[in-house]
Design brief:
The complex is a heterodimer. Chain A is mainly β. Helices cover 0% and strands 50% of the residues of chain A. Chain A has strands at residues 5-7, 10-13, 19-24, 31-37, 44-50, 53-57, 64-68, 74-78, 87-94, 104-105, 109-113. Chain B has one domain (3-114): Immunoglobulin-like, CATH 2.60.40. The chains are: A mainly beta, B mainly beta.
Chain lengths: 114, 115
Amino acid sequence: DAGVTQSPTHLIKTRGQHVTLRCSPISGHKSVSWYQQVLGQGPQFIFQYYEKEERGRGNFPDRFSARQFPNYSSELNVNALLLGDSALYLCASSFLRGGQETQYFGPGTRLLVL
Amino acid sequence: AQSVTQLDSQVPVFEEAPVELRCNYSSSVSVYLFWYVQYPNQGLQLLLKYLSGSTLVESINGFEAEFNKSQTSFHLRKPSVHISDTAEYFCAVSEAGSTLGRLYFGRGTQLTVWP
């Protein structure tokens, strides 16, 4: 079975631009979470979606938004990019939502903002 | 909220030597505990997790971690490391019983195994 897939793998943008990152969860998984991993730090929680509804949001500005589609894939959108948005963006999926559920991570999208 | 402290940012060790990667957490509620491993240019892979029951949990590749509630620790150990264990290791917690499953990660420990 395919794992969590993310696209694109790498992306270069300039300040002020907008970016859309995509994630396809493991087949049958209904929950998708997004994390931001800045170089040298651990991942930080951005969003969780379950059954197409936002269930949780981390401490990120409104420039960050996301959505989940009927097939459970998800998009993360970031507007008005800042240099500090340069990071590895990780998507994780799980069958249910809840702390006991193992979250399976994709390879990430590496975003560089110039 | 929960927080995780990984006490060592880098741990160099020779092949076949034992290793311990330290993790302490802070939380006002019960937690689940996880160790993830990240190889270069890859995402995170779950190494092992503690949900309940036996405080000693093991992975299939020889790592083990012990939950110590009084010390609020979840240190990762391996009695004999291999070159292939070179990677970044992240300790994480989530709130037990929460329907959110949000993970709080430490800053990571880079384990480098030398021949």
